[in-house]
Amino acid sequence: MIRIFSDFDGTIVREDVGNAFFRTFAPGKAEEIVRGYLDGTMNARDCLTGECAAVPEMDRRTFEEFADGFHVDPTFPPFAEFCRMQEIPLTVLSDGLDVYVERILRRAGLGALPWFANHAEFVARDGVSKVQPSFPWRDSECDWCGNCKRNHMVVNSADEDLLVYIGDGISDRCPVRYADVIFAKRSLIVYCQKENITYHEFKDFNDVRMRLEVLIAQKRKRQRREAVMARRDVFLRG
Asked: Architecture of domain 2-237 in CATH?
């Protein structure tokens, strides 16, 4: 069976919603914090926690109103319908916050899609509401990601499945090592080239669908040897 896993920010939504949020409500400070994440000196959990703390005040309604300014890529709903018609499981994986992932997908009529993200709560202290992240999907042995995309892929698949991953950025570097077929754009292309990981460049989900139609037509669908070994290693270490 083919199983597809897709990043959210910069992929399903063309913009990075999380980055836009923090640039808007914590300008300067958030950019300073995220530089540590980009240069590899800060992990995703510390980065997201620091960015949330840098926002002086935030309530759920204001957050949701901000999220309503973002929309899924117009090519994504037809792609999701294509996957449904082909009986291909499609799962959304985000290292952002659930409060906007859920809302944007639901507004696009895609609320039934399975998705995983970091959790956000709005906590009032001394009369001030703040956004507070937590990480229900972190891996206890991994110090880098907030939402461990690799674990979702490995746990929700069988040995014989062909795993497809679609992404664009830093949080996608880990999961592509465990995928058989990779669709990449932006900085993920650079990473795949550096690590000698085979990938297909894509502009939107129409590109992904056309390539998948070719793959589906093939009688024999080959798993990527390095990905199979990496997935097996996860279970052996577990």
From this structure: 3-Layer(aba) Sandwich (3.40)
